[in-house]
């Protein structure tokens, strides 16, 4: 049920490394003192040194394992220290080991597991929730005791009832998949109410995949989809990710119908990529209702200011001069996307106000929209605004400003800007040549220029 990590004498790795360092060649010992002071790490205590320590000191070292990363020396040393202190019969050390097991989700090796189970059970019966959870995990995995998922579920529920968050997630998994408990979606979701959002989301996904794959003995795609939908309520993009995996069959199960359903759910919850998928699937249809739905999906996707493709798609649809009711829908979508900061939508809306498509022709409004897009660095907006400054449409004619905008658009790689800039600057250069030498445009000097 739970993804666990096995700690296989991890401390020995650090101890061996320390001994190897002590046995390094004399030349290594001759390194500059300043460099050694900067890079030297305290050697990890050996097993013999740990066993010689007092229980109080061992407990201090053990506490470090709670918050340390699992691949660090502190974790390995702390875990070994807790084991040794627990083997002396120290109850605090046993509880500390249970906390380490619960927090890091590990299976301990190098210990008498049957004896450890008895100690943990003793602490569990005295109200230590981490010990309760540790006993549950041992029954769940068969560590020191026979595998017994029903008994494990009882212990998980016990820890969950006293408020242990991880145990609540395990109880939810048991109810959701039927591992050790009778399946109940209602009970699963109820237990997840008390779990933080990240763990709730991951548990919902684990339940969903277990039901989709049948890894706990029951295959139920319909129920799996409901758990995936619950996860998507917390993060819309999850539904689209799961849909992609179901579509490709990367987890061992392929179901395109289920994938399509999740893509729609993700789109309805505002996932931009999913909305684009829905729109693209309908965009080539000649059915008026399909076209309206495509515009709605594009409009939803364009609310993501970074989805330039959606803004471009709406703008492109407008240039096709569709039916009036569809034009109104496109304008509304462009307006909302422009307000959300989608620069491609700003350009499309500016085009509508320039040519009076679906709205009253207002060149001044078009210019202000293009200015916003240009200020954000959009090269096409700079190009179009440059044309307006050249012609004086919507703004006061300003050749210098027009050339400045065109130059910036050209430097940004907009292809038409170079041609327009050439048309703006060549007449001025030709006039300067005439004034200086009186030559005609066809004269050799002009050609040389």
Describe the structure.
The chain is mainly alpha-helical and about 450 residues long. It is built from 26 helices and two strands. Strands 1-2 form a two-stranded parallel sheet. Helix 11 (about 165-175) runs parallel beside helix 13. The longest helix is centred in the last third of the chain and has 23 residues, at about 415-435. The protein starts with a strand and ends with a helix. The relative contact order is 0.04. Residues about 5-40 and about 430-449 have low confidence and may be disordered.
SSE layout:
Blueprint (H helix, E strand, L loop, with lengths): L4 E3 L2 H13 L3 H4 L3 H7 L7 H6 L2 H13 L5 H15 L3 H14 L1 E3 L4 H12 L4 H13 L7 H13 L3 H13 L7 H8 L4 H17 L7 H14 L2 H12 L7 H13 L3 H12 L4 H15 L5 H12 L4 H16 L3 H13 L7 H13 L3 H13 L7 H13 L3 H23 L6 H5 L1
Parallel strand pairs: 1-2
Helix pairs in contact: 1-6, 5-6, 5-7, 6-7, 7-8, 7-9, 8-9, 9-10, 10-11, 11-12, 11-13, 13-14, 14-15, 14-16, 15-16, 16-17, 17-18, 18-19, 18-20, 19-20, 19-21, 20-21, 21-22, 22-23, 23-24, 24-25
Descriptive keywords:
mainly alpha, 26 helices, elongated, 449 residues
């Amino acid at each position: 049920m739970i993804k666990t990590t096995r700690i296989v004498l991890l401390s020995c790795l650090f101890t061996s490394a320390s001994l190897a360092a002590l046995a390094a060649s004399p030349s290594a010992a001759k390194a500059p003192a300043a460099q050694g002071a900067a890079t030297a790490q305290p050697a990890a205590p050996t097993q013999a040194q740990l066993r010689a320590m007092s229980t109080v000191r061992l407990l201090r070292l053990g506490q470090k394992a709670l918050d340390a990363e699992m691949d660090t020396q502190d974790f390995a040393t702390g875990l070994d220290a807790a084991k040794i202190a627990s083997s002396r019969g120290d109850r605090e050390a046993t509880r500390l080991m249970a906390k380490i097991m619960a927090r890091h989700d590990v299976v301990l090796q190098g210990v008498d597991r049957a004896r450890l189970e008895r100690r943990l059970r003793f602490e569990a019966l005295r109200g230590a929730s981490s010990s309760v959870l540790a006993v549950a995990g041992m029954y769940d995995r068969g560590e020191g005791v026979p595998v017994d998922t029903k008994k494990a579920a009882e212990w998980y529920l016990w820890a969950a009832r006293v408020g242990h968050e991880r145990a609540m997630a395990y109880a939810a998994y048991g109810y959701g998949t039927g591992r050790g408990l009778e399946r109940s979606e209602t009970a699963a979701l109820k237990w997840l109410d008390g779990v933080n959002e990240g763990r709730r989301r991951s548990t919902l996904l684990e339940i969903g995949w277990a039901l989709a794959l049948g890894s706990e003995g029951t295959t139920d795609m319909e129920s799996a989809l409901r758990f995936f939908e619950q996860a998507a309520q917390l993060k819309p993009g999850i539904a689209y990710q799961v849909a992609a995996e179901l579509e490709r069959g990367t987890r061992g199960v392929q179901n395109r119908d289920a994938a399509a359903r999740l893509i729609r759910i993700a789109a309805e919850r505002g996932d931009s990529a999913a909305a684009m998928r829905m729109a693209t699937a309908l965009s080539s249809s000649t059915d008026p209702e399909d076209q309206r739905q495509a515009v709605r999906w594009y409009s939803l996707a364009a609310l993501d200011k970074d989805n330039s493709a959606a803004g471009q798609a709406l703008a492109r649809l407008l240039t096709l001069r569709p039916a009036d009711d569809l034009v109104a829908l496109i304008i509304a979508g462009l307006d909302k996307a422009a307000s959300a900061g989608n620069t491609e939508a700003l350009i499309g809306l500016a085009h509508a106000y320039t040519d009076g498509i679906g709205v009253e022709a207002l060149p001044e409004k078009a210019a202000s929209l293009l200015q916003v897009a240009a200020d954000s660095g959009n090269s096409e907006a700079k190009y179009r605004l440059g044309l307006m400054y050249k012609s004086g449409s919507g703004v006061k004619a300003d050749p210098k400003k027009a050339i400045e905008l065109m130059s910036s658009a050209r430097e940004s790689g907009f292809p038409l800007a170079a041609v327009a800039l050439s048309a703006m600057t060549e007449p001025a250069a030709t006039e300067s040549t005439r004034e200086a030498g009186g030559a005609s445009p066809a004269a050799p000097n002009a050609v040389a220029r």
